[in-house]
Protein backbone atom coordinates (compact mmCIF):
# COMPACT_ATOMS: atom_id res chain seq x y z
CA UNK A 1 0.00 0.00 0.00
CA UNK A 2 1.33 3.45 -0.87
CA UNK A 3 2.32 5.00 2.47
CA UNK A 4 0.67 8.38 1.82
CA UNK A 5 -2.63 6.76 0.78
CA UNK A 6 -2.50 4.37 3.73
CA UNK A 7 -1.92 7.22 6.17
CA UNK A 8 -4.69 9.42 4.71
CA UNK A 9 -7.25 6.59 4.74
CA UNK A 10 -6.33 5.30 8.20
CA UNK A 11 -8.63 7.84 9.88
CA UNK A 12 -11.73 6.53 8.10
CA UNK A 13 -13.71 3.54 9.40
CA UNK A 14 -13.23 0.64 6.96
CA UNK A 15 -14.58 -2.89 7.13
CA UNK A 16 -12.22 -5.32 5.40
CA UNK A 17 -14.35 -7.14 2.83
CA UNK A 18 -11.46 -7.88 0.42
CA UNK A 19 -8.89 -10.12 2.14
CA UNK A 20 -6.28 -9.83 -0.65
CA UNK A 21 -4.77 -7.66 -3.37
CA UNK A 22 -6.46 -8.29 -6.68
CA UNK A 23 -3.96 -9.53 -9.28
CA UNK A 24 -2.67 -7.78 -12.40
CA UNK A 25 -2.78 -10.10 -15.40
CA UNK A 26 -1.14 -9.73 -18.84
CA UNK A 27 -3.37 -10.48 -21.86
CA UNK A 28 -0.93 -11.92 -24.43
CA UNK A 29 -3.38 -12.75 -27.21
CA UNK A 30 -5.36 -9.49 -27.01
CA UNK A 31 -2.03 -7.62 -26.83
CA UNK A 32 -0.83 -9.41 -29.97
CA UNK A 33 -4.07 -8.53 -31.77
CA UNK A 34 -3.71 -4.85 -30.85
CA UNK A 35 0.06 -4.44 -31.13
CA UNK A 36 0.21 -2.87 -27.66
CA UNK A 37 0.53 -4.38 -24.17
CA UNK A 38 -2.80 -4.85 -22.37
CA UNK A 39 -2.98 -5.81 -18.70
CA UNK A 40 -6.04 -6.21 -16.50
CA UNK A 41 -6.42 -5.52 -12.78
CA UNK A 42 -8.80 -8.25 -11.68
CA UNK A 43 -11.20 -6.27 -9.51
CA UNK A 44 -13.83 -8.78 -10.59
CA UNK A 45 -12.04 -10.94 -8.00
CA UNK A 46 -12.60 -8.72 -4.98
CA UNK A 47 -14.09 -11.82 -3.47
CA UNK A 48 -17.41 -10.99 -1.82
CA UNK A 49 -20.29 -12.69 -3.63
CA UNK A 50 -20.09 -11.62 -7.27
CA UNK A 51 -17.02 -9.46 -6.54
CA UNK A 52 -16.51 -6.32 -8.58
CA UNK A 53 -15.71 -2.68 -7.95
CA UNK A 54 -18.52 -1.96 -5.53
CA UNK A 55 -16.93 -4.09 -2.80
CA UNK A 56 -14.08 -1.57 -2.57
CA UNK A 57 -16.55 1.27 -2.03
CA UNK A 58 -18.55 -0.77 0.48
CA UNK A 59 -15.52 -1.22 2.74
CA UNK A 60 -15.76 2.50 3.52
CA UNK A 61 -19.52 2.97 3.14
CA UNK A 62 -20.42 0.15 5.52
CA UNK A 63 -17.60 1.23 7.83
CA UNK A 64 -19.25 4.67 7.92
CA UNK A 65 -22.71 3.17 8.43
CA UNK A 66 -21.56 1.06 11.40
CA UNK A 67 -19.64 3.99 12.89
CA UNK A 68 -22.89 5.98 12.75
CA UNK A 69 -24.83 3.23 14.51
CA UNK A 70 -26.94 2.19 11.52
CA UNK A 71 -28.84 -1.09 11.72
CA UNK A 72 -30.40 -1.11 8.24
CA UNK A 73 -28.86 -0.40 4.84
CA UNK A 74 -30.96 0.99 2.00
CA UNK A 75 -29.58 1.24 -1.51
CA UNK A 76 -30.95 1.41 -5.02
CA UNK A 77 -30.43 0.62 -8.68
CA UNK A 78 -31.84 -1.20 -11.65
CA UNK A 79 -33.30 -4.68 -11.11
CA UNK A 80 -30.07 -6.05 -12.69
CA UNK A 81 -27.90 -3.99 -10.32
CA UNK A 82 -24.54 -5.45 -9.32
CA UNK A 83 -24.16 -2.71 -6.75
CA UNK A 84 -27.49 -3.47 -5.08
CA UNK A 85 -26.87 -7.18 -4.74
CA UNK A 86 -23.32 -6.95 -3.46
CA UNK A 87 -24.32 -4.21 -1.01
CA UNK A 88 -27.08 -6.43 0.34
CA UNK A 89 -24.77 -9.43 0.68
CA UNK A 90 -22.13 -7.39 2.50
CA UNK A 91 -24.74 -5.86 4.80
CA UNK A 92 -26.17 -9.29 5.65
CA UNK A 93 -22.65 -10.61 6.29
CA UNK A 94 -22.19 -7.80 8.82
CA UNK A 95 -25.50 -8.60 10.56
CA UNK A 96 -27.29 -5.54 9.18
CA UNK A 97 -30.80 -5.49 7.75
CA UNK A 98 -31.15 -4.31 4.17
CA UNK A 99 -33.84 -3.05 1.78
CA UNK A 100 -33.13 -2.74 -1.95
CA UNK A 101 -35.13 -0.08 -3.82
CA UNK A 102 -35.01 -1.14 -7.46
CA UNK A 103 -36.37 0.12 -10.76
CA UNK A 104 -37.65 -1.97 -13.66
CA UNK A 105 -39.51 -5.23 -13.96
CA UNK A 106 -39.02 -8.20 -11.63
CA UNK A 107 -37.02 -10.73 -13.66
CA UNK A 108 -35.71 -13.85 -11.94
CA UNK A 109 -32.32 -13.72 -13.65
CA UNK A 110 -28.82 -12.54 -12.76
CA UNK A 111 -28.60 -10.28 -9.72
CA UNK A 112 -32.34 -10.17 -9.05
CA UNK A 113 -32.41 -13.97 -8.90
CA UNK A 114 -29.53 -13.74 -6.40
CA UNK A 115 -31.43 -11.06 -4.42
CA UNK A 116 -34.36 -13.46 -4.06
CA UNK A 117 -32.21 -16.54 -3.44
CA UNK A 118 -30.52 -14.75 -0.54
CA UNK A 119 -33.88 -13.67 0.92
CA UNK A 120 -33.08 -9.98 0.48
CA UNK A 121 -35.98 -7.54 0.87
CA UNK A 122 -36.58 -5.74 -2.42
CA UNK A 123 -39.07 -3.01 -3.35
CA UNK A 124 -39.38 -2.84 -7.16
CA UNK A 125 -40.86 0.23 -8.85
CA UNK A 126 -41.67 0.71 -12.52
CA UNK A 127 -39.82 4.03 -12.81
CA UNK A 128 -37.20 5.17 -15.30
CA UNK A 129 -35.45 8.03 -13.57
CA UNK A 130 -33.02 7.97 -10.66
CA UNK A 131 -34.68 10.93 -8.81
CA UNK A 132 -37.90 8.88 -8.58
CA UNK A 133 -35.93 6.00 -7.08
CA UNK A 134 -34.29 8.30 -4.55
CA UNK A 135 -37.72 9.53 -3.46
CA UNK A 136 -38.84 5.94 -2.87
CA UNK A 137 -35.64 5.17 -0.94
CA UNK A 138 -36.25 8.19 1.28
CA UNK A 139 -39.82 7.00 1.91
CA UNK A 140 -38.51 3.57 2.94
CA UNK A 141 -36.01 5.25 5.27
CA UNK A 142 -38.81 7.28 6.90
CA UNK A 143 -40.94 4.14 7.29
CA UNK A 144 -38.03 2.35 9.00
CA UNK A 145 -37.30 5.30 11.30
CA UNK A 146 -40.95 5.27 12.39
CA UNK A 147 -40.37 1.62 13.36
CA UNK A 148 -37.39 2.72 15.48
CA UNK A 149 -34.76 1.51 13.02
CA UNK A 150 -31.59 3.43 12.14
CA UNK A 151 -31.38 3.34 8.30
CA UNK A 152 -28.34 4.40 6.24
CA UNK A 153 -28.93 5.21 2.58
CA UNK A 154 -26.17 4.35 0.08
CA UNK A 155 -26.59 6.19 -3.25
CA UNK A 156 -26.70 4.45 -6.61
CA UNK A 157 -23.38 2.78 -7.33
CA UNK A 158 -22.01 3.90 -3.96
CA UNK A 159 -21.13 7.14 -5.75
CA UNK A 160 -20.41 9.37 -2.78
CA UNK A 161 -17.23 10.97 -1.38
CA UNK A 162 -16.96 8.14 1.19
CA UNK A 163 -17.50 5.43 -1.43
CA UNK A 164 -14.93 7.04 -3.70
CA UNK A 165 -12.27 6.38 -1.06
CA UNK A 166 -12.48 2.71 -2.09
CA UNK A 167 -10.82 3.51 -5.40
CA UNK A 168 -8.37 5.92 -3.86
CA UNK A 169 -7.27 2.88 -1.85
CA UNK A 170 -7.17 0.73 -5.01
CA UNK A 171 -4.63 3.14 -6.53
CA UNK A 172 -2.60 2.89 -3.33
CA UNK A 173 -2.57 -0.90 -3.79
CA UNK A 174 -1.86 -0.59 -7.51
CA UNK A 175 1.11 1.76 -7.06
CA UNK A 176 3.06 -0.75 -4.98
CA UNK A 177 2.10 -3.61 -7.32
CA UNK A 178 3.33 -1.88 -10.46
CA UNK A 179 6.55 -0.68 -8.87
CA UNK A 180 7.37 -4.25 -7.77
CA UNK A 181 6.48 -5.45 -11.30
CA UNK A 182 8.66 -2.70 -12.77
CA UNK A 183 5.85 -1.68 -15.11
CA UNK A 184 4.91 1.80 -16.33
CA UNK A 185 1.43 2.19 -17.81
CA UNK A 186 0.40 4.92 -20.25
CA UNK A 187 -3.33 4.69 -19.48
CA UNK A 188 -5.69 3.13 -16.96
CA UNK A 189 -9.15 2.37 -18.35
CA UNK A 190 -12.43 1.70 -16.53
CA UNK A 191 -16.16 1.52 -17.22
CA UNK A 192 -18.06 4.60 -16.06
CA UNK A 193 -21.57 4.20 -14.67
CA UNK A 194 -22.22 6.42 -11.63
CA UNK A 195 -18.67 7.83 -11.87
CA UNK A 196 -17.32 6.90 -8.42
CA UNK A 197 -14.69 4.45 -9.59
CA UNK A 198 -13.09 6.88 -12.04
CA UNK A 199 -13.30 9.66 -9.44
CA UNK A 200 -11.35 7.53 -6.95
CA UNK A 201 -8.78 6.61 -9.59
CA UNK A 202 -8.39 10.28 -10.55
CA UNK A 203 -7.78 11.36 -6.95
CA UNK A 204 -5.58 8.35 -6.16
CA UNK A 205 -3.33 9.05 -9.17
CA UNK A 206 -2.95 12.67 -8.06
CA UNK A 207 -2.09 11.69 -4.49
CA UNK A 208 0.44 9.02 -5.50
CA UNK A 209 1.81 11.15 -8.39
CA UNK A 210 1.57 8.00 -10.54
CA UNK A 211 2.08 9.16 -14.12
CA UNK A 212 -0.75 7.22 -15.74
CA UNK A 213 -3.59 8.86 -17.63
CA UNK A 214 -7.09 7.82 -16.45
CA UNK A 215 -9.56 7.15 -19.31
CA UNK A 216 -13.24 6.44 -18.72
CA UNK A 217 -15.53 4.49 -21.04
CA UNK A 218 -19.06 5.71 -20.27
CA UNK A 219 -21.74 3.04 -20.56
CA UNK A 220 -24.61 5.41 -19.82
CA UNK A 221 -24.49 9.16 -19.23
CA UNK A 222 -21.38 10.71 -20.80
CA UNK A 223 -20.05 14.08 -21.93
CA UNK A 224 -19.75 17.24 -19.82
CA UNK A 225 -22.36 16.10 -17.30
CA UNK A 226 -20.50 12.91 -16.41
CA UNK A 227 -17.13 14.64 -16.52
CA UNK A 228 -18.35 17.21 -14.01
CA UNK A 229 -19.79 14.49 -11.78
CA UNK A 230 -16.48 12.60 -11.74
CA UNK A 231 -14.38 15.69 -11.02
CA UNK A 232 -16.83 16.95 -8.36
CA UNK A 233 -16.79 13.56 -6.62
CA UNK A 234 -13.00 13.50 -6.66
CA UNK A 235 -12.87 17.05 -5.28
CA UNK A 236 -15.35 16.24 -2.49
CA UNK A 237 -13.33 13.16 -1.56
CA UNK A 238 -10.15 15.26 -1.48
CA UNK A 239 -11.92 17.64 0.91
CA UNK A 240 -12.91 14.66 3.07
CA UNK A 241 -9.24 13.61 3.14
CA UNK A 242 -8.20 17.17 3.98
CA UNK A 243 -5.89 17.47 0.99
CA UNK A 244 -5.73 20.11 -1.73
CA UNK A 245 -5.11 18.72 -5.19
CA UNK A 246 -4.99 19.89 -8.77
CA UNK A 247 -7.26 17.51 -10.72
CA UNK A 248 -6.90 17.20 -14.47
CA UNK A 249 -10.13 16.31 -16.31
CA UNK A 250 -9.94 12.66 -17.47
CA UNK A 251 -10.87 11.66 -20.99
CA UNK A 252 -14.35 10.08 -20.94
CA UNK A 253 -15.65 8.45 -24.14
CA UNK A 254 -19.20 7.40 -25.00
CA UNK A 255 -19.37 3.64 -25.44
CA UNK A 256 -22.99 3.32 -24.31
CA UNK A 257 -24.01 2.25 -27.83
CA UNK A 258 -26.92 4.66 -27.55
CA UNK A 259 -28.30 3.95 -24.09
CA UNK A 260 -27.46 2.55 -20.68
CA UNK A 261 -28.28 -1.16 -20.59
CA UNK A 262 -28.72 -1.47 -24.37
CA UNK A 263 -27.46 -4.93 -25.33
CA UNK A 264 -25.70 -4.93 -28.70
CA UNK A 265 -24.20 -7.53 -31.01
CA UNK A 266 -20.75 -5.90 -31.12
CA UNK A 267 -20.40 -6.27 -27.37
CA UNK A 268 -21.73 -9.84 -27.33
CA UNK A 269 -19.06 -10.64 -29.92
CA UNK A 270 -16.40 -8.84 -27.87
CA UNK A 271 -17.37 -10.84 -24.75
CA UNK A 272 -16.91 -14.05 -26.73
CA UNK A 273 -13.58 -12.83 -28.15
CA UNK A 274 -12.05 -11.96 -24.78
CA UNK A 275 -13.54 -15.05 -23.17
CA UNK A 276 -12.07 -17.42 -25.74
CA UNK A 277 -8.76 -15.57 -26.22
CA UNK A 278 -7.98 -14.91 -22.54
CA UNK A 279 -10.46 -16.90 -20.44
CA UNK A 280 -11.81 -13.70 -18.89
CA UNK A 281 -15.56 -13.04 -18.79
CA UNK A 282 -16.86 -9.53 -19.34
CA UNK A 283 -20.48 -8.38 -19.06
CA UNK A 284 -22.83 -6.78 -21.62
CA UNK A 285 -23.76 -3.68 -19.57
CA UNK A 286 -20.42 -2.41 -18.23
CA UNK A 287 -17.10 -4.16 -18.77
CA UNK A 288 -17.91 -5.53 -22.24
CA UNK A 289 -18.69 -2.02 -23.49
CA UNK A 290 -15.66 -0.55 -21.73
CA UNK A 291 -13.30 -3.17 -23.18
CA UNK A 292 -14.83 -2.63 -26.61
CA UNK A 293 -13.85 1.03 -26.20
CA UNK A 294 -10.37 0.03 -25.07
CA UNK A 295 -9.80 -2.08 -28.17
CA UNK A 296 -11.36 0.54 -30.45
CA UNK A 297 -9.15 3.35 -29.14
CA UNK A 298 -6.02 1.18 -28.84
CA UNK A 299 -6.30 0.36 -32.57
CA UNK A 300 -6.28 4.13 -33.22
CA UNK A 301 -3.17 4.56 -31.05
CA UNK A 302 -5.07 6.68 -28.52
CA UNK A 303 -4.25 4.76 -25.32
CA UNK A 304 -0.47 4.43 -25.54
CA UNK A 305 1.76 1.37 -25.66
CA UNK A 306 0.87 -0.17 -22.30
CA UNK A 307 -2.74 -0.13 -21.07
CA UNK A 308 -4.25 -1.26 -17.76
CA UNK A 309 -7.93 -2.23 -17.78
CA UNK A 310 -9.76 -2.29 -14.44
CA UNK A 311 -12.08 -5.29 -14.62
CA UNK A 312 -14.90 -4.08 -12.39
CA UNK A 313 -16.94 -7.31 -12.44
CA UNK A 314 -20.56 -7.55 -13.60
CA UNK A 315 -20.75 -11.28 -14.37
CA UNK A 316 -24.46 -11.64 -13.42
CA UNK A 317 -25.24 -9.38 -16.36
CA UNK A 318 -24.33 -12.30 -18.65
CA UNK A 319 -27.12 -14.34 -17.10
CA UNK A 320 -29.57 -11.45 -16.99
CA UNK A 321 -29.12 -10.69 -20.69
CA UNK A 322 -27.94 -14.09 -21.95
CA UNK A 323 -30.94 -14.75 -24.18
CA UNK A 324 -30.66 -11.30 -25.73
CA UNK A 325 -27.01 -11.98 -26.54
CA UNK A 326 -27.76 -15.41 -28.00
CA UNK A 327 -30.36 -13.84 -30.29
CA UNK A 328 -27.92 -11.11 -31.35
CA UNK A 329 -25.34 -13.80 -32.17
CA UNK A 330 -28.02 -15.76 -34.10
CA UNK A 331 -27.66 -18.65 -31.70
CA UNK A 332 -31.30 -18.74 -30.67
C1 LIG B 1 -19.74 -4.19 -13.18
C2 LIG B 1 -19.64 -2.69 -13.11
N1 LIG B 1 -18.56 -2.09 -13.65
C3 LIG B 1 -18.42 -0.74 -13.64
C4 LIG B 1 -19.38 0.07 -13.08
C5 LIG B 1 -19.16 1.56 -13.09
O1 LIG B 1 -18.70 1.96 -11.83
P1 LIG B 1 -19.10 3.40 -11.29
O2 LIG B 1 -20.56 3.32 -10.91
O3 LIG B 1 -18.23 3.60 -10.09
O4 LIG B 1 -18.87 4.38 -12.40
C6 LIG B 1 -20.51 -0.51 -12.49
C7 LIG B 1 -21.58 0.33 -11.88
O5 LIG B 1 -21.87 1.41 -12.36
C8 LIG B 1 -20.64 -1.92 -12.50
O6 LIG B 1 -21.70 -2.53 -11.91
N1 LIG C 1 -23.21 -0.21 -11.53
C1 LIG C 1 -24.40 0.33 -10.92
C2 LIG C 1 -25.18 -0.79 -10.34
O1 LIG C 1 -26.29 -0.55 -9.85
O2 LIG C 1 -24.65 -1.93 -10.38
C3 LIG C 1 -25.06 1.44 -11.54
C4 LIG C 1 -24.31 1.60 -10.26
UniProtKB/TrEMBL annotation:
Signal peptide: none annotated. Keywords: Pyridoxal phosphate. InterPro entries: ACCD_DCysDesulf, D-Cys_desShydrase, TrpB-like_PALP, TrpB-like_PALP_sf. Residues 17-313 form the Tryptophan synthase beta chain-like PALP domain. Pfam families: PALP. Its cofactor is pyridoxal 5'-phosphate. The keyword Metal-binding does not apply. It comes from the Archaea. The keyword Repeat does not apply. Belongs to the ACC deaminase/D-cysteine desulfhydrase family. PANTHER family: 1-AMINOCYCLOPROPANE-1-CARBOXYLATE DEAMINASE-RELATED. This is Pyridoxal-phosphate dependent enzyme.
Amino acid sequence: MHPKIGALLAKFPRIELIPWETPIQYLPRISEMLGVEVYVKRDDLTGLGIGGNKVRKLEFLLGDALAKGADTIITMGAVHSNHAFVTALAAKKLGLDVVLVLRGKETLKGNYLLDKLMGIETRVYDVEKTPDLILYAEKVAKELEEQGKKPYIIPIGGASPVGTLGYVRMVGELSTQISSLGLKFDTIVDAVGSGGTLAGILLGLELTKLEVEPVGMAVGIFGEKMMQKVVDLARESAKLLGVSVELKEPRIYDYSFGAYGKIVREVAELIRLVGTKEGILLDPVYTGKAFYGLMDLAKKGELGERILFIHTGGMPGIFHYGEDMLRLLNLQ
